[in-house]
Design goal:
Layout: H1 2-5, H2 11-23, H3 27-30, E1 39-45, H4 64-72, E2 74-80, H5 86-95, H6 126-132, E3 136-142, E4 160-164, E5 184-185, E6 188-189, H7 196-209, E7 216-221, H8 234-237, H9 253-276, E8 283-289, H10 311-314, E9 315-321, E10 330-337, H11 338-348, H12 365-370, E11 378-382, E12 386-391, E13 394-399, E14 402-407, H13 423-438
Parallel strand pairs: 1-7, 1-8, 2-10, 3-4, 3-7
Antiparallel strand pairs: 2-9, 4-5, 5-6, 8-9, 11-12, 12-13, 13-14
Helix pairs in contact: 2-9, 5-11, 7-9
Amino acid sequence: MANESRAWLTRREFLDAAAGAAATLTASQLGAASPERPNVLFILADDLGYGDLSCYGRPDYRTPVLDELALQGLKFTSAYAAAPVCTPTRCALLTGRYPQRTEVGLYEPLTGRDLDKGLSPDHPTAASLLKANGYETALIGKWHLGWKQEFGPNRHGYEEFFGILSGTADYFTHRSSAKTPDLWENLTPIERVGYLTDLLSDRAAEFLARPRSRPFYLSLHYTAPHAPWEGPEDAAIGHTDHGAGPMNDGGSLKIFGAMMKSMDAGIGRVLRALRRAKLERNTLVIFTSDNGGERYSYNWPFAFQTGHLWEGGIRVPAIVRWPGVVAAGRTTEQAAITMDWTATILAATATSADPAYPLDGEDLMPVCRSAGAVHERTFFWRTQSLDAARVGNWKYLMESGNEHLFDLATDPGERADLRGKHGEVFEKIRNQYSAWNAAMLPKRQVG
């Protein structure tokens, strides 16, 4: 048995993955979908690097369910997070706007010192707009946009919440990095026995199995593969005691792989529940990550990781499936960013944005329907110490007072600085960034 626990796939993981792959169908088998008022299943991984799915190049483990999802839909190779850390990206997803437009979006991320901060309940969100449009709304998983009740998911349009409020939690004890209990059912703290990834997957599957009279918007925000690095079997072998040190201590490639395979298998259970409920034909499924990966991620050819504005910190995988509507089995180089998913969801569901809070994202459904020629986009990023912009294939980056210019079409790894060779391009993009920055809230005064 000891040798079996060290195998590349555990028996449970193998059976879960095989069942998930068997349950997923090709787009032609799923049939055509009605484009009117689709359901929406939005799946967000946490600290998942660009190459951490096997369909994006991960060499040491397989993610068969998400690989199959990509074959059934459209895979993006130039998708970005709105920020290199969680809170601002989640703020961008909820609001559909650059995180620098809201106070909470300036926190990188919210910590235990920021208990009085959170997303204002006065700000419209995708969930509140969809709820007003007759949708059943639920968030299962990680929030990280405020701890107080007035900042919580239930005040932002989610009729149901099951998950954690903080940025990370132990997968077995469900305690935050401050060692406090952090598993919630709406406004009530609860206790459950089980591996957190499994609890979230099973709750999502249960939600999908319910009888309903309204279309749904389900946000499934996993904590995986964010630290602490604990695989589903680690409780039995003593890998869950983090002591007084930070939760991001330890880990290994093997444990990271176990976490990823567990999430992939859990998504398989969720998609099977969707299929059993006969809802897959009219459900828009979107999968992506909140930012780039951590120390065990596979980001090649991109540089650096979460926390950075180099490509490795913000380039993320993204998959869209809507049978009969979204082009299946294709890949697009179309540049996309977090706020686009908000705009796409609202457009697909015929839900109007609040005109007082105009969206910064773009509806990507025309791209998803045809997977045709890409068009140029302009994105901006800002942290307390870093600035960046992408205009077409050009990337402007400022780090530690040093400014760079890269051509991502020929140099996705950002190795060759072209600032001197293309001075006019550099100045133009820097000026564009300055104009955008002036329209945002100023940076926080820290310290």
